[in-house]
Amino acid sequence: MLGAFLKEADLKPHQSRYWLNAKYDDPQIFNQQVTGVCDTYALASTHENGVHVISTDEMTGIQALERLHPTLPMEAGKPERREFEYIRHGTQTLIASFEVGTGKVLTPTVGETRTEEDFAGHIKRTIDTDPQAQWIFVSDQLNTHKSEALVRLITERCEIKEDLGIKGKSGILLSMETRADFLQSATHRIRFVYTPKHASWLNQVEIWFGILVRKLLRRASFTSTENLRQRILAFIDYFNVTMAKPFKWTYAGRPLSC
User: Which of 68, 119, 144, 185 is most buried (CB neighbours < 10 A)?
Assistant: First the structure.
């Protein structure tokens, strides 16, 4: 009787998942930031007019785990059986740029670190796929997403002649706040839009990371970090050809629109 009621109500009390609530001091500013991200996603349809809307982030600590024994395929009456024990070969970090308008992952970067140079280099390679276009990058507020290297890259590519000052002392480079203000400027051909703190669910690339985990990482066995790297890049190539499509994003701020 109880089971029938839960099924009809679509309730699953045996399941739970972690959730990180957004933290903000000013609800008005938070709502403005959320609306800004959603409005940016709405621009993605203008991709063909020379505007690229990119959701970007790092996926860190991807483990190269090698199963001690091969996985046994499913049989009639038996599920697939994966070896419980494994060998650790180290980790890799993936920096991914998910193009909102096409659903493709551009210029993936897989390596051992995620420094500000790594992230700026990734953004540079992404811009180089269409150097004269307008680029809008949606990212979280990690310090490497507000770095000196990133400011200098945008300054160079947008041909900005303004004096940048000195990091920690003056001008645009003074602090993360001043660098973020510069990187968000709507007057720049290449700019950033930041999600509110503790609101990673607004970043569409996080949805794609879930696809990567389900389709590749969860079941695979990797013989080395290089093997892991190559398998991730091969999966992205395959994904872009066979599965890529824009996510149906209906959230426009508050309330949820259908």
Answer: 119
How far, in Å, CA of 104 to CA of 68, rounded? 34
pLDDT in tens, 62-116: 999 888 767 656 767 767 666 567 789 999 999 999 999 999 999 999 999 999 9
* DSSP state string for 12-60: -TT----------S-HHHHHHHHHHHHHHHHGGGGGGGTEEEEEEEEEE
- How far apart CA 192 and CA 20 sit, in angstroms, is 23
pTM for the whole structure: 0.84
**Whether the Cβ atoms of residue 246 and residue 44 lie closer than 8 Å to each other:** yes
Q: Helices 176-183 and 148-157, interaxial angle, to 10°?
A: 30
Among 145, 149, 184, 186, smallest CA distance to 164 is for 149
Quote the CATH superfamily of domain 35-70+79-241. Answer: Ribonuclease H-like superfamily/Ribonuclease H (3.30.420.10)
